[in-house]
Design a protein that fits this description.
By secondary structure, the chain is an all-alpha fold. 70% of the residues lie in helices and 1% in strands. It is globular and about 110 Å long. The two termini are 54 Å apart. Belongs to the CAND family.
């Protein structure tokens, strides 16, 4: 009843003559209906009806503020009223639209009500579902009939001005929110109504534009026949001989909008429609325009729309537009230079700065603003030709993005690139920026495709080598190795064009427009990473770029230029930051001959920027200083060592500045670490300065806020420290501080501190500074880390102890106890190798007996493999160093022959094998002692004997391998063969570096492996052995792999497929040379295998190849990707129904295959996205977002990666992604759902929300035109706000490295 008492005063005041009382009543009502705790009383329908009447009446109030507040109230009110009253509300609003003096007010209210009901319905509660159903019925019975009446040709309106834009906006909202529920008959009626509105000459241009949007939204839900009729109607109008320019513009706008809204269904019609659009920009009408002195505004609008439509066709329907590529490029090039109001003297002179004339170059150095000032003075107010040129630039950019791989070799650099460079002198700012952006896209595509075979790491290595010297022959060799064989001409063409690019860009860097300069810097950053030899380019562009960093080019005095631009305004600060980033790239890519002339200016500019008050400039300058110090060869500075002191002063100033931003201080600490590292062992920095710097680092290490950054800086210094550089006192203090951090809860800090300690101890130049007390302190803090519960920390701790033991430290009992505890659990990889290294060091120093006793006591209670390796290593090392140990090999031989405990026998066998593997000098046993134990009835002994037999065979293959071969040939049971495969495995695994050990036995081993492949229990280990054998002798066994792929037995083919996967890891380039010619043929044959399990193995193999040997598969992705895409499709024939008690359950046998296919696709995206067709990739990803839980999570991971490496492609699909996400997040768990189902749903929802945050963070303002995504993001914040907030905190916490 309390709500009833609240509503009664509101009803009274709504009818008051005083507008203030009406406003206050609506304000109270808004507070009531937006409160989650309040509901409208349901006991009295008349009260609610009176409330609705009062608010609707307020929409036509004479007071504007009352009207606005009434609009604001209706949306939340509609969510709290009964179903019949909701229908009544729709009726009242539609009637008011026709009768009101200002129909925009009730139209806006109706649109907001429809939108709010759509969002409310997505919450999928019982009440919202009922409201949603009522809203759908009301739209069908009330809203759409009213809209059809208003949209009907000749329908009277109260204003007499035709259809209002607000009415069209209502229809757009109806289609967006309830389009999938609209009756097909209504869609059939709406389509001709919209077309009539678009063709109505009396309708305003704004209304027609919104009608085009509405028609595109309708196309999403239209039937195929309705869409076909729409296209047919457009075609007939195109063919009309009396079509006006305005109608041409509208038709091409419709075509472009439909290609964006429903690309799959609209794409096939482009064969008919694209030629009509292309004829509008083929240039045939330009001569007629030349004869007419009047501005061709209408025709220019048609051209702009046609170019935009072609861009949309290319972006969303690239396959269908492939046949029109040449015509599209011709149109783009023609209108890129379309400027009827500007007469050029000569085409060559158009590009000031591209001539080789020395005088012109001198003029460029003293460029004033006359070429760029008063840009609007040459153009009429009616001249919109600049929009045509901008559209042409955007069109060419889309051509480059979608067809670069096909066109880079010839068309793009022969025709497009020179035209873009010439247009760098464009007089209109907006067009110039678009031209620069298009050129940047071309350069980046060239870089991505031309160097994708070598990968970024090889590129970086080559760049570093290039810096170290300017020997021409060496550089030419590197350059030829970097250019992949299938894309040689693109990078060479870019290199040929680079002088023009450099001179033109240098001129633009002096342009008064901040936007132009910042976009040019972005272009240059891409250019120098793409060029095989960027040195000449850097010589030209470095001086003006350094001037920007130094802020002596008038950057801060030209904000008006930026404001004049229509694009996102740059600032002097952002320009300097981008210029600093460019310098960082230049230090990596450039050679000495390019950097040396500008070095002093660079140092002064960077040092000055580091002292800037704006923290972003200062932080980036310090990062650039680190790059300069780390990557630039110190020899360059020999002529003027004061450069180091200049940087030193700036860095110290920021480290000591306590009021500076934390990020700036951290960057300063990193820069100081780089400076001390580079100058270590030199006289570039005086001793007093170095001492002060070390003191500052120690102070920062003791400060909690800067500790982690300081630890990482000291690690860098510790790796490179030269003799006598670090004082014993400083090292002692640092080790004490680092040791204290090993007890902290911050896992990132613990790990970094331990890695830094390892770097200090392992550096032979630092070891003399370690006193006995410091070493003892280290042992004390490391002892608690000797635990298998955290192997990430245990491995480095063991390595440090190994060095300390070699230096004479005696292991204390508690340390030996910690070492022995490691034998209780499995160890592999780095931690195991570190443990064995410590064992060798301790045994060599006479401390092996203590450890041996501990492991003997552990015995069979520990992990057999680890215990055996440790004891075997002690025995072998003790024998090598003539150490007297408490046990000998004979003791273990006796154990094998006399013990009745199987586990003890197994351990003894493994110890003998490990001792033989480690080269025990007294090992003289033959294979018989091991072979005899293969026949044991125990579960443990035979496998241990087989493994030990293989280990022993590594050291004496001539004696052991023939015995193994003989035993395998005599074996009649699969079990015996399985055991002997373990012997083969150990021999092959340890013979990769010594292939001569088994070269004479390889053929017999191969035959045995193929035989064993037919047994299920032997398939896995046989596959590994096959791979190892192929690695040892690829010339002999890769053809064998090809041959066995044709075996009729699927088990044999499966082993061969898995065997190839083993060859793709831990192999060198020499093996790749054998694999390169046949790898594609092998993979294609595998992926076409008729057996489902084998295809899954083949996808896993391709995944491994893309991850480990990307260069082998990148060139042939066109053959492999269609087979991967095929396996991501749900196949109904693999879904079967099984009976589980009284219930029937569907089992998808193809799910695991699809998961593997999507995993493989993810790996290929990471390795070679530049070579993939984005349309095909996103087609499968978006399909995967509607697949099973596991597949959806993989697709989310892919989107998180793609938004980083290909943001523009993601933006184009945001609405489709949002639709899938909203459907999944709206699913509610069943009442009888079990815990596992709830956990899976929670995991999937968190994955979607995490990806949503990642996408939104990267696309930002780029998603402003994707209404579907924006609506979904707002909906997600409303319905999953707490989860989003929690994920944001988790991401922030992870970024800081906080955690246990």
């Amino acid at each position: 009843m309390s709500q009833q008492f609240q509503i009664n005063p509101i009803l009274q005041q709504l009818g008051d003559a005083d507008s203030d009382f009406r406003f206050m009543a609506l304000n109270d009502l808004y507070a009531l209906v937006t409160s989650t705790s309040n509901t409208i009383p349901s006991d009295s329908g008349s009260t609610t009806s009176r409330l609705i009447d009062g608010v609707v009446k307020a929409l036509d109030d004479t007071n504007g503020e009352v009207q606005n507040l009434a609009v604001k109230c209706l949306a939340p009110l509609s969510l709290k009223i009964k179903d019949l009253q909701l229908r009544d509300l729709f009726g009242k609003l539609t009637e008011l639209i026709s009768s009101s003096n200002d129909p925009s007010i009730p139209a806006t209210a109706l649109r907001l009500v429809i939108a709010s009901l759509s969002r409310f319905g997505a919450s999928a509660t019982a009440g919202s579902a009922t409201a949603l159903q009522t809203a759908q019925q009301s739209i069908h019975h009330v809203v759409i009939p009213k809209l059809l009446t208003i949209l009907a040709p000749g329908a009277p309106t109260k204003s007499g001005q035709g259809v209002s834009i607000d009415v069209v906006d209502i229809l757009i909202e109806v289609l967006k929110s309830f389009g999938d529920t609209i009756d097909p008959g209504d869609l059939e009626k709406l389509q001709p109504a919209l077309l009539s509105l678009i063709e109505n000459e009396k309708a305003s241009s704004v209304v027609k534009k919104r009608a085009v949007t509405a028609l595109a939204s309708l196309g999403i839900y239209a039937s195929d026949s309705l869409l076909s009729r729409t296209v047919s109607h457009m075609t007939m109008v195109f063919l009309s001989s009396h079509i006006s320019p305005n109608m041409q513009r509208l038709l091409v706008s419709i075509a472009g909008a439909l290609s964006r809204s429903t690309p799959k269904r609209f794409g096939p019609y482009l064969k008919t429609l694209a030629p009509f659009v292309i004829t509008l920009v083929d240039g045939h009408d330009l001569e007629r325009d030349d004869d007419d002195s009047e501005p061709q505004t209408e025709q220019d609008e048609v051209r702009e729309a046609a170019l935009a439509a072609l861009e949309s066709f290319l972006a969303h329907c690239p396959v269908e537009m492939k046949d029109f590529t040449n015509e599209v490029i011709s149109a783009g090039l023609l209108y890129l230079k379309y400027d009827p109001n500007y007469v050029e003297e000569e085409e060559d002179e158009e590009m000031g700065g591209t001539q080789a004339d020395d005088d012109e170059e001198d003029d460029a150095d003293n460029l004033d603003d006359e070429e760029f000032e008063d840009e609007g003075g040459l153009s009429d107010d009616d001249d919109i030709s600049w929009k045509v040129r901008r559209g042409a630039a955007k069109l060419l950019s889309t051509v480059i993005s979608t067809r670069a791989e096909d066109l880079l070799k010839e068309t793009l650099y022969r025709e497009v690139a020179p035209s873009l460079v010439k247009r760098f002198s464009e007089r209109e700012e907006n067009v110039r920026l678009e031209v620069l952006a298009t050129a940047t896209t071309l350069i980046r595509k060239t870089r991505d495709l031309a160097y994708s075979s070598s990968g970024p790491s090889k590129r970086a290595v080559a760049a570093q080598k290039r810096r170290r010297g300017s020997d021409i022959s060496m550089y030419e060799q590197e350059k030829s190795s970097m250019a992949p064989p299938n894309q040689p001409s693109a990078s060479h063409a870019l290199q040929k064009l680079s002088p023009q690019l450099a001179k033109s860009s240098a001129k633009l860097l002096r342009n008064p427009s901040l936007n132009t300069r910042q976009t040019t810097v972005d272009l240059l950053s891409a250019l120098i990473t793409a060029l095989p030899d960027p040195n000449d380019t850097l010589k030209t562009v470095l001086p003006p770029a350094v001037s920007i960093v130094a802020a002596n080019d008038g950057a801060s005095a030209a904000p008006a230029s930026a404001a004049a631009s229509g694009s996102a305004a740059a600032s002097s600060s952002s320009l300097r930051i981008e210029a600093l980033k460019f310098l960082s790239i230049a230090f990596v890519e450039g050679g000495d001959e390019a950097l040396k002339p500008s070095l002093n200016d660079i140092v002064k500019a960077v040092a000055g920027a580091a002292l800037d008050k704006f923290y972003k400039i200062s932080g980036q300058a310090l990062t650039t200083a680190s790059e300069l110090l780390t990557l630039l060869a110190p020899e360059i500075a020999l002529e003027d060592v004061s450069s180091f002191k200049t940087l030193y002063d700036s860095i110290v100033s920021k480290i000591q500045q306590n009021d500076a931003d934390l990020e700036v201080r951290e960057r300063a600490i990193e820069a100081m670490g780089s400076l001390l590292t580079v100058t270590s062992g030199t006289e570039y920095l005086d001793q007093e300065s170095r001492t002060r710097a070390f003191t500052l680092l120690l102070e920062r290490l003791r400060n909690e806020t800067t500790r982690l950054t300081t630890v990482r800086s000291i690690e860098k210094l510790a790796h490179e420290a030269q003799p006598n550089d670090l004082s014993p006192a400083w090292v002692k203090d640092v080790i004490s501080e680092l040791g204290a951090q090993l007890r902290k809860a911050n896992r990132a800090l613990r790990g970094s501190s331990l890695v830094t300690l390892r770097a200090l101890v392992l550096n032979p130049n630092v070891q003399p500074t370690l006193s006995a007390g410091t070493a003892d302190e280290l042992v004390t803090v490391l002892t608690p880390l000797l635990s298998s519960s955290d192997l990430h920390l245990c491995g480095p701790a063991l390595q440090i102890l190994s060095v300390l033991v070699s230096g004479g430290i005696v292991l204390k009992p508690e340390v030996i106890t910690g070492i022995s505890s490691l034998g209780q659990n499995p160890l592999t990889g780095g931690p195991l190798e570190a443990l064995l290294g410590l064992i060798r060091s301790a045994t060599a120093r006479g401390q092996g007996n203590d450890i041996l006793v501990q492991y003997l006591n552990l015995g069979v209670n520990g992990n057999t493999v680890v215990v055996a390796k440790v004891i075997g290593t002690i025995l072998a090392t003790g024998a090598d160093h003539k150490q007297l140990l408490k046990l000998s090999l004979g003791s273990f031989v006796d154990e094998i022959q006399t013990s009745t405990v199987d586990k003890q026998k197994a351990l003894a066998l493994m110890v003998l094998g490990e001792a033989a593997l480690n080269g025990h000098g007294e090992f003289s046993l033959g294979p018989d002692i091991f072979i005899k134990q293969l026949r044991s009835k125990s579960d443990d002994v035979p496998l241990a004997a087989a493994t030990a037999l293989g280990l022993a065979g590594v050291g004496n293959p001539q004696q052991f391998v023939p015995a193994i071969i003989k035993e395998f040939a005599a074996s009649v049971t699969p079990k015996n063969q399985y055991l002997l495969l373990h012997s083969y495995k150990e021999i092959l695994q340890h013979s990769v570096q010594k292939p001569e050990n088994i070269s004479e036995f390889g053929g017999e081993i191969w035959n045995h492996l193929i035989t064993a492949a037919k047994h299920e229990e032997s398939k896995s280990i046989a596959a590994e052995c096959v791979g190892r054998l192929a690695i040892i002798d690829p010339r002999a066994y890769i053809p064998g792999l090809q041959q066995q792929l044709g075996d009729p037995d699927p088990a044999v083919r499966g082993v061969v497929i898995s065997g190839l996967r083993y060859t793709l890891t831990d192999t060198t380039g020499s093996f790749d040379a054998f694999l390169q010619p046949v790898v594609t043929e092998l993979l294609v044959a595998m992926l076409n295998d008729p057996n489902l399990d084998n295809r899954k193995l083949a996808l896993t193999t391709l995944n491994s190849a893309a991850h480990s040997k990307a260069g082998l598969v990148k060139a042939n992705l066109s053959s492999l990707l269609p087979l991967v895409y095929q396996e991501t499709i749900i196949k109904p024939e693999l879904i079967r129904e099984v009976q589980m008690g009284p219930f029937k359950h569907k089992v998808d046998d193809g799910l695991e295959l699809r998961k593997t296919a999507y995993d493989t696709l993810f790996t290929i995206i990471e390795a070679a996205y530049a070579r993939m067709n984005p349309a095909q990739v996103y087609d499968r990803i978006i399909a995967g977002l509607g697949d099973e839980h596991e597949v959806q999570i993989i697709c989310n991971l892919m989107l998180g990666k793609l938004v980083v490496i290909g943001k523009d492609d993601v933006i184009k699909r945001l609405d489709s992604i949002a639709e899938k996400y909203k459907v999944t997040l709206s699913i509610k768990a069943k009442e009888n759902a079990v815990k596992q189902e709830l956990e899976k749903m929670s995991e999937l929802n968190r994955s979607i929300l995490r990806t949503t945050l990642t996408i939104q963070a990267h696309v930002g303002a780029g998603a402003n035109h994707e209404q579907g995504w924006l609506g979904f993001y707002e909906w997600a914040k409303q319905n999953h706000g707490s989860e989003l907030s929690s994920l944001e905190k988790e991401e922030a916490k992870a970024a800081k490295g906080v955690g246990n």
